[in-house]
Hints:
The complex is a heterodimer of chains A (214) and B (500).
Chain A: H1 6-14, E1 24-26, H2 29-39, E2 43-49, E3 61-65, H3 68-81, E4 89-95, E5 101-110, E6 114-121, H4 126-129, E7 132-136, H5 141-150, H6 168-184, E8 188-199, E9 202-205, E10 208-212
Antiparallel strand pairs in A: 1-4, 2-3, 2-4, 5-6, 5-8, 6-7, 8-9, 8-10
Helix pairs in contact in A: 2-3, 5-6
Chain B: H1 19-22, E1 26-30, H2 39-49, E2 55-59, E3 65-66, E4 69-70, E5 85-88, H3 95-104, E6 109-112, H4 121-138, E7 141-143, E8 149-152, E9 157-160, E10 168-175, H5 178-191, E11 195-200, H6 209-218, E12 224-229, H7 235-246, E13 251-255, H8 269-273, H9 276-286, E14 290-292, H10 295-307, E15 315-320, H11 323-334, E16 339-340, H12 345-352, E17 365-366, H13 375-385, E18 391-395, H14 399-409, H15 418-443, E19 447-450, H16 453-456, H17 461-468, E20 473-474, H18 477-496
Parallel strand pairs in B: 1-2, 1-5, 5-6, 6-7, 10-11, 10-12, 12-13, 13-14, 15-16, 15-17, 15-18, 18-19, 19-20
Antiparallel strand pairs in B: 3-4, 8-9, 8-11
Helix pairs in contact in B: 3-4, 5-10, 6-7, 7-9, 10-18, 11-18, 13-15, 14-15, 15-17
Amino acid sequence: MPTLSEADSKELLATFGVPFPTERVVTTADGAVEAAEAIGFPVVVKLGGEGIAHKTERGLVRLGLGSAGQVRDAAAALLAAATPDDGEVHLLVAPMLRATRELIAGLHADDQFGMTVMLGVGGILAEAVADVSFRLVPITRVDAEEMIDDLALQALLGPFRGEPPVDRAALADVLLHLSEAATAHADVVSADLNPLLVVDGRPVAVDALVEVRP
Amino acid sequence: MSAPPAPTPSARIAPERFRTLFEPRGVLVAGASTHPGKFGFVSLHNILACGYQGKVFATNRDGAEVLGIQTVADIDDLPDGEIDLVFVCTPASANPDVLRACAKKGISAAFIASAGYGEAGAEGLAAQAELVALADELGILLAGPNGQGVVSPPAGLCAQIVGPYPPAGHIGIASQSGNFVSSFENYAQLTGVGVSRAVSAGNAAAVGVPDYLEYYADDPETRVALAYVESVGDGRAFVERLRGVAERKPVVVVKGGATAGGQRAAASHTGALASDDRVFDGAARQAGVSRAATVEEGFEVAATFASQPLPRGNRVVVVTTVGGWGVVSADAIAGTDLELASLPDDLMAAIDAELPPRWSRNNPVDMAGGETRDTVPRIMQLAAAHDQVDAVIFLGMGIQSNQARLMREGPFWPDHGLERIVAFHERQDARYAEAAAEVSDATGKPVLVATELAVTSPGNPGPAAVRAGGRLCYPSANRAVVALDHLWRRSRWLARRGLR
C-alpha cells in the first residue's frame, strides 16, 4: 500500500482538526534556517517525500537543533542523504516539543471489522506494552471517552511529574477527528499518529503516516 | 462437533418464525432408532423424559415401536396440522425428502442433527446449500445442521442428543459449539438459575447465533442472552446486530479463539497492535456486549443479569462476618470499575447502633462476630437502602450451618443440646439468604451473596436458600465482584447513551 509523505499525511488529517505543531515545508538549507528562525529554536528537521515512510530507521530526523548553524548543517546532510528511490524530497521544519508522555493513535482497516480507530500508550515500548483500545469507525464522543477510560495506565493521564493531567476532551477530539477522516476518505487504509505527545496536558501529533489504497 | 459456521447472514428473521422451534404444539423425531446409543433414540428419549406436554411422533424405517411410541415409516401417514417441529436424525441424503413431507404436514421448524454437511467438505457444503434453499422454499425455519439440539424448558422441551435438561428460567443460550450449550446448562442445573431457551447453532447454515439472539430480544421468557462464539464472519455486521439486542436486553458473550490469529504483517504501528482479540474486544464494548473471559464467568454474569436488578451507580458495600474476606473483596473491587463506598456518617451511626464497638467502622463492614439473631438482615437493609450505596455483597453465610453439619453427622447427635443449636444455625443461614433477596427486591439494588459452600457443600441451608430464591450463590467474593462489575458497566453503557 502506498503511503503519503509526512507533510501530506498531516495535511489530510489536519483538515479534520487533528492537532499538529506549526511546521514549514522547505526545499533548501537556507529555507530551513529561515523557517527555524520564524518558528523559534530549538527545532526538528526531517527529510520528507512520497517514498519516505520510515524516517527514524534511516536517520532522516534531526532533533533539538538550537542554532541557525546547526539547522543549516543538518538540512544539508539530510538533502545529501536522499537517494534516487526517494523521488522528490523536501525538508520539514518543526518546533522541538518536549513531552514526558507519549501516546499513539491511529486508524486500521481490519479484515473482519472494517475501519477501526485506536488509542494507546505510545513511545518505543508501545507494541510491547500494548495498552490499547479499539473501536469501530464511526465513533461517538461517548465511545471516544470510553476508549480513554479503557487504557490500563490511567496514571499516565493524570497529573504527571509536574505536568497537568491530560485534557481528556481534547484527546477525545483527536479520536473523533481520526474517525471523521476515515469516514470522509474511503481510500485510507491506515493512519498512525506516533507519537501523539502530551504537551502541557494537550495532545499534539508530531508525526503522521497515512496509508492509502493504490 | 463444531464446524466452520456460514458467514453471518444480515437480514433479520421474523420473531414469530421461532415460535414453532421453541414452543411447538407437536414434535416429530425423523429417524427414530431402536438402538439406545443412536441420536434417533436419545433425542426421542429426552423429549419424552423431560415433561413435554405436546404430542410426540416418530418415524422409523421399519415402523418399529420405540420407547412406547408407535412410529411410522412414512411421514405422509402422520396427522396434518398437529406437528410444528421436526427433529431430524436421518442421513443427510434422505433429508430433502423429509423436509418436503414435513412441509405438507404443516411443520414449519426443523432442527437438523444429522452430520454430513458444511463440516464434511465440498460435497457436504453443496448438500447444505441445497437444504437451505429447500427449507426457504418450503417456509421451514432450518436450525443446524450438525447441531446437538434445542431446549425450551418453558415448553417442557428437551429436543437434544445429550444432557442435561436445565431448570426453567430466563437465560437464553445460543452457541456455535454444542458442548458449550451443555456447559451452560450444567451450570444452570448446579446453581438453579435456569434457562429459557438453549440452542446449538451447529453449522448455522440458515440460522446463526445473531438470529437466535435477536429472537431472544423479543422473547418474553428471556431476560438475558448468553452466547458462545468462535467465528464471527463479517465482524461489523455481527456486532451491529448484537448491539441491537444489547439495547434491549443484556448480551453476554464468551469468545473462543481469543488469542488466535492476531497481528498480521502491517506497515503501521496501529495495524501491528490490532490483534483480532483487541478489535473484537473494542467492538463488543462499543456495542454494549458484556464479554466474559471464561465459560463460568459467562454463565455467572448471565445468571446475575437474570436475577439481580441493574445498579444505578458503582458504590458497593461489603458486609462480612469475617475480616479476611472483606479484605479480599476490597482487593477484587479495586481491580474493577466498581468502588468501595465510603460509609456516610448516618449509615455509620445506624450500624453502630446494631453492633458492638469492635466492628470495622469502615467498608468492608466487618461485623467481627458481634452479630446476633437479626443483625445481618438489618445491616444489609441499612446499607442497601442508603442513597449513597448502589449494591451490597454479603460474605459469611453458611459458616454456622457448616458446623451444624458436623454436629448432625457426629456421634453425639442429637443429644447435648445439639438438635436445638443446629436448628437455630440452619434457620439463620436460610434467613440470611432470604433477607438478601428481600432487601434487593425492596430497594431495587443488587445484593449478592458469596460463599465457597455454594460448590463445596451445596446442601448447606444458606446456599440452598439462595438457590430456592432463584438467585445465584457466588462461589467466591471475587466472582461476585466480577459479575457485579459487568452489571455496572452495562448500566453505565445504557445511561451514557440515553437508553436507561
